[in-house]
Amino acid sequence: MLNTKTMINRNLIRSIILTTLVYTAFTGCVTKQGLIKKTQGNYDISITKSNSNGDPFFYGVIKEYKTNDPLNGGIIKIDNKIINKVNNAGKFEFNIKSGRHTFTSMLMGYYILKSENIKVFNGDTIKIDFYLKPDTTTKLIEPKINR
Questions:
Q1: How confident is the model at residue 5 (pLDDT cuts 50, 70, 90)?
Q2: Residues whose CB falls within 8 Å of the CB of residue 45, separated by 6 or more in sequence, listed in order
Q3: 3-class SS at 117?
Q4: Burial grade of 82 (CB within 10 A; 0-12, 13-18, 19 or more)
Q5: DSSP secondary structure, 24-68, as one string
Q6: Angle (nearest 5°) at CA 91 between 90 and 97
């Protein structure tokens, strides 16, 4: 026979679990992967899950590594396909297909920064901010003009 205190505790636990499940179903849950450090720069990623059946939504900003200033003129690649939707403020956003993807950020004068292979599902919202380090190994050589 269960005593009253045990029954109240079980009911409280059931209530908390049910509330958590309902809240997660309506608001989605965030899978925060955080800041990933690489030699070419860093990227900060978070994936928000939802119950939507729509294509995953991918967005973020390309920034300079030290200053965090947005970088103008960058390119985003998904897998090996170039997506030219980065605006002058370094921002990008577009829908992608569910599945495993690698995201790459590129800009002349900076190291290429590639994410790990990430699995995304319908309804996911993927936010990645890329922090690019200047590429000091390559230099622009101006041709000498004889006058």
A1: low
A2: 33, 34, 36, 115, 118, 126, 127, 128
A3: coil
A4: exposed
A5: HHHH-EEEEEEEEEETTEEEEEEEEE-S--SPPEEEEEEEETTT-
A6: 130
Cα–Cα distance, 147 to 125 (Å, whole number):
57
pLDDT tens-digit map of 109-141: 999 999 999 999 999 999 999 999 999 886 666
Instruction: Give the pair of three-digit tokens for residue 82.
Output: 């170039």
Task: Grade residue 2 by pLDDT with cuts at 50, 70 and 90.
Answer: low
Q: Is the pLDDT of residue 56 over 60?
A: yes
Domain parsing of the chain, residue ranges:
29-132
Looking at domain 29-132, its CATH class is mainly beta
Which candidate, 33, 39, 40, places its Cα nearest to that of 60?
33
* pTM for this predicted structure: 0.71
| Position with higher pLDDT, 127 vs 35 | 127
d(CA 30, CA 95): 18
Which DSSP helix (H) or strand (E) runs through 15?
A: helix 4-27
